[in-house]
């Protein structure tokens, strides 16, 4: 039995999802609506109108079917569809109990409604834009959410945390072997968290390949227990100037460089790869993951959306629908499922590089 926020396809066609998004004072009302795809909806005209309404909707629309079959035009227009099997369709996410999973997603959206709505908007807009434009859109949205109540609540719950100490060694090791440039993230004591020092060193190392056409291949891996554990949480909430932070993310971050070099980059991943730890690699043309690798996008629980390029790189590999699911659920994705979805290209033993 779905929650009271479930509507039928006929309801969607009639405008049920188009009530005012904001209450008095700006609070978001029902950031996510569930659409029961198994209830009869009548004519093709109703279906056509439902598709149009879904394309115009400000809210997240999550379809739910227990039959593993739904009109393709509608699943294309929805933000995500839960089903007992996906049949290789990247607009669907296969889950054991679609009704139960729908209730979980609904609760997560209610927990951070502004971030959930912004996430849907950014994913929809981003697929229509060139990569550099989509990165700008993501970063502007991310900067907005840094001023929001959801992120403030997360910071308060986390409590004060000291700024990370300076790195004890080079944060990115660079080695050239013929026409191959080997780059190794080297802050294992912080699980190679994507903090300021590591970011700047990685961008500088990638510039070597960008400026030298004789570099035929770049191999990127990481020392320690994980390839990259995501943004360094010790640096979250310390930016004093969010406009400058936006420009640093988009012009000083690694996303553009990895995208520019994508046809020459192989990323070898292992351990827990969180947030930026998969957002940046997803730009590369080849990702090799260790069988024990686990991927996760936890940003919604912080009142944020992915901010290292994940709303741009990951949808271009697995589609905006499954990307939404990963962020909205916060669930870990194992290497086997990542391979089936196309998030990675190969699964083989990797581990940290030899010393």
What key phrases describe this protein's structure?
2-enoyl-CoA Hydratase, Chain A, domain 1, 15 helices, 39% helix, Enoyl-CoA_hydra/iso, six-stranded mixed β-sheet, five-stranded parallel β-sheet, globular, single chain, alpha/beta, 355 residues, ClpP/crotonase-like_dom_sf
In short:
It comes from Streptomyces prunicolor. This is Enoyl-CoA hydratase-related protein. By secondary structure, the protein is an alpha/beta fold.
Structure description:
The chain has two domains: 6-111, no CATH class; 131-347, Alpha-Beta Complex (2-enoyl-CoA Hydratase, Chain A, domain 1), CATH 3.90.226.10. It has 15 helices and 14 strands. It has helices at 9-13, 44-56, 72-77, 98-111, 113-126, 131-146, 149-158, 196-211, 242-251, 255-260, 276-279, 310-313, 315-318, 320-329, 335-341, and strands at residues 6-8, 32-36, 60-64, 80-83, 92-94, 172-177, 180-185, 217-222, 265-269, 272-274, 286-289, 294-296, 333-334, 346-347. A six-stranded mixed beta sheet has the order 6-7-8-9-11-14, covered by helices on one side. It has a five-stranded parallel beta sheet with strand order 1-2-3-4-5. It starts with 5 loop residues before the first strand and ends in an 8-residue tail after the last strand. The mean pLDDT is 94.
Number of helices: 15
Rough shape?
A: globular
Oligomer: single chain
The portion of residues forming beta strands comes to 15-25%
Mean pLDDT: 94
| Overall helicity | 25-40%
- Architecture of the largest domain in CATH? Alpha-Beta Complex
Radius of gyration: 21 Å
CATH homologous superfamily designation of the largest domain:
2-enoyl-CoA Hydratase, Chain A, domain 1
- Determine the CATH topology of the largest domain: 2-enoyl-CoA Hydratase, Chain A, domain 1
State the separation between the terminal residues, measured CA to CA: 55 Å
Secondary-structure element order, N to C:
EHEHEHEEHHHHEEHEHHEEHEEHHHEHE
The parts where pLDDT drops under 50 for at least 5 residues are none
């Amino acid at each position: 039995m779905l929650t009271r926020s479930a509507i039928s396809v006929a309801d969607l066609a009639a405008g049920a999802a188009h009530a005012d998004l904001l209450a008095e004072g700006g609070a978001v009302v029902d950031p996510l609506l569930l659409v029961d795809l198994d209830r009869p909806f009548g004519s093709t005209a109703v279906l056509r109108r439902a598709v149009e309404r879904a394309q115009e909707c400000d809210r997240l629309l999550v379809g739910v079917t227990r039959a593993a079959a739904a009109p393709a035009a509608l699943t294309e227009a929805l933000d995500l569809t839960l089903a007992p099997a996906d049949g290789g369709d990247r607009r669907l996410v296969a889950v054991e109990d679609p009704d139960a999973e729908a209730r979980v997603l609904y609760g997560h959206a209610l927990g951070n409604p502004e971030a959930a709505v912004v996430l849907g908007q950014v994913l929809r807009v981003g697929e229509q834009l060139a990569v550099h434009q989509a990165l700008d859109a993501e970063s502007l949205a991310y900067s907005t959410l840094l001023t929001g109540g959801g992120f403030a609540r997360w910071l308060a719950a986390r409590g004060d945390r000291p700024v990370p100490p300076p790195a004890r060694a080079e944060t990115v090791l660079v080695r050239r072997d013929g026409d191959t440039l080997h780059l190794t993230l080297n802050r294992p004591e912080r699980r190679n968290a994507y903090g300021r020092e590591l970011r700047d060193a990685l961008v500088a190392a990638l510039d070597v390949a960008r400026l030298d056409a004789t570099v035929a291949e770049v191999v990127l891996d990481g020392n320690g227990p994980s390839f990259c554990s995501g943004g360094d949480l010790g640096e979250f909430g310390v930016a004093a100037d969010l406009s400058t932070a936006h420009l640093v993310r988009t012009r000083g971050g690694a996303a553009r460089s990895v995208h520019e070099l994508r046809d020459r980059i192989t990323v070898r991943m292992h351990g827990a790869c969180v947030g930026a730890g998969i957002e940046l690699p997803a730009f590369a043309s080849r990702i090799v993951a260790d069988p024990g690798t686990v991927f996760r996008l936890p940003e919604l629980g912080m009142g944020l959306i992915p901010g290292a390029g994940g709303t741009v790189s990951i949808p271009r590999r697995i589609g905006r629908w499954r990307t939404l699911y990963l962020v909205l659920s916060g669930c870990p994705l194992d290497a086997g499922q990542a391979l089936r979805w196309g998030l990675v290209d190969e699964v083989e033993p990797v581990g940290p590089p030899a010393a």
